[in-house]
Amino acid sequence: MVTRMMAAGAALALALWLLLLPVEVRGAGPPPIQDGEFTFLLPAGRKQCFYQSAPANASLETEYQVIGGAGLDVDFTLESPQGVLLVSESRKADGVHTVEPTEAGDYRLCFDNSFSTISEKLIFFELIFDSLQDDEEVEGWAEAVEPEEMLDVKMEDIKESIETMRTRLERSIQMLTLLRAFEARDRNLQEGNLERVNFWSAVNMAVLLLVAVLQVCTLKRFFQDKRPVPT
């Protein structure tokens, strides 16, 4: 009985020791940086900045559009993680800029509406990354398959087809996003024009009615003054 208890205790101690051993996690590391898009409202006379982390030796593409507000323009600047001014634009409605290769760190994107004292701006911008890590991931899965000579189709052809398809799908998503931004800008512009047309139409109608009433009153008074006085 004592021997069984000692054996059970030893087994329990061994199990606890195995559970407490440090476990190595393979492939652990910082999560990949994802492409992103954002739409925000920039008040009049204000400046707003955004920070985006970027890996080293990658490609960063920045696209922005002013889709709402009077003038449809804004000031835009892009700075590197070292504080170097890469892009500076004034009173632009849209823009596309590419940084290649990137530096590891936080890039600063600023939108400035200080020149406008009345009108706020609705701004859409998108960040697109093209990192070399994606190519390494595509090449990594090929190690788990059979050798090339045992396949009917070469692995290089398969990898090339997959890479081409991935590039085209990403470009399609980017184009659809830009088309949505163009559509939103055109819709806001048409709605603004419709409001102005309705307002001035109402003003013109009110003026016409006022002129008509004044003319009628003036004619009445004129004919009343010409009427003979009874004796």
UniProtKB/TrEMBL annotation:
UniProt entry tagged with the keyword Nucleotide-binding: no
Entry keyword set: Endoplasmic reticulum, Membrane, Protein transport, Signal, Transmembrane, Transmembrane helix, Transport
Record GO cellular component, one term: endoplasmic reticulum-Golgi intermediate compartment membrane
Signal peptide: 1-27
Domain of life of the source: Eukaryota
TM region(s), chain numbering: 197-217
Identification of the protein by name: Transmembrane emp24 domain-containing protein 1 isoform X2
Gene transcribed to yield this protein: TMED1
